[in-house]
């Protein structure tokens, strides 16, 4: 089914139009850190204010039916944007991406919706008289004067592997931490995120950014990593649980978003690759990594400690379509010098899709 897409589709999965958040306060009712996809059959449509609702029956694997409802924009706003009750044909199938109500498991906040005819629309989509989505001009600067980075972003072309990885100078403690590194520890082989730098562009997946005055949410297309950048001066809570995403604070310095992230668990800057324990090769079990090629040193494995601090600087180009990020990893325990890099993503009309990892790399060995 063909999806009608536009650069105006700035809300997919975890992105919520900030005007509606500020006015209606939906962030308190819905848990925007959680997302899911649900498919059902429409039973009712109410284009009312302050929020319109679509009701639909969802059948689980046991055959039990639950009537759910998802909140949308206000009925008045939707009607002005060309949405009609006739679009929600009773008995037709819809698929909704959204976030759950904090208290009611049968209610959600709709981010985007796919109708039975294959048309996918988000909360801000505008429909023409013929029922197709109108293309609207993207706002490059927000009303508060900051660059508009809300939207979906991906590399223009999938990342190309050069065969070489940058060299990182490690401390004695850093070298000791990776002395027995095995490819079986590579997070990507275990459906886990690696780090906030590499995963942003890995495999050219679509990332989603949701921007408000007080916070920016980055949802990675690779491994579904979610980060919240706090713009309100929040300090990391004393009981914060270290994670791969860490705790991020940010501030706009002119047109540059400067982000500092701490609160990491011990993880990988460069995860080990190469031979994997347990794989069968030519009838013999391979239990160790193959020797590193002479003169090259082979792929380097580098860990980060819980003392890691990552600084990122995001800048938007003049037409608002290219987002550049410069980053630096500073780890006084494991790194002698900072690990630095840069990447670019471009604005895309492609929808964010959950990664839904199911790694079959080692399937034959198992």
Entry keywords:
single chain; 366 residues; mainly beta; OB fold (Dihydrolipoamide Acetyltransferase, E2P); 2 domains; five-stranded mixed β-barrel
Question: What order do the helices and strands come in, and which of them pair?
Answer:
Layout: H1 18-24, H2 26-29, E1 36-46, E2 53-59, E3 65-71, H3 75-80, E4 93-100, E5 107-114, E6 120-122, E7 126-127, E8 133-134, E9 151-154, H4 172-177, E10 207-211, E11 215-219, E12 226-230, E13 247-253, E14 256-262, E15 267-270, E16 279-281, E17 284-286, E18 302-304, E19 309-316, E20 322-330, E21 339-347
Parallel strand pairs: 3-5, 12-13
Antiparallel strand pairs: 1-2, 1-4, 2-3, 4-5, 5-6, 7-8, 9-10, 9-21, 10-11, 11-12, 13-14, 14-19, 15-18, 16-17, 19-20, 20-21
Account of the protein in words:
With 366 residues, this protein is mainly beta. It folds into two domains: 18-134, Beta Barrel (OB fold (Dihydrolipoamide Acetyltransferase, E2P)), CATH 2.40.50; 151-347, no CATH class. It contains four helices and 21 strands. It has helices at 18-24, 26-29, 75-80, 172-177; strands spanning 36-46, 53-59, 65-71, 93-100, 107-114, 120-122, 126-127, 133-134, 151-154, 207-211, 215-219, 226-230, 247-253, 256-262, 267-270, 279-281, 284-286, 302-304, 309-316, 322-330, 339-347. The strands form five sheets. It has a nine-stranded mixed β-barrel with strand order 9-10-11-12-13-14-19-20-21. The radius of gyration is 23 Å and the shape is globular. It starts with 17 loop residues before the first helix and ends in a 19-residue tail after the last strand.
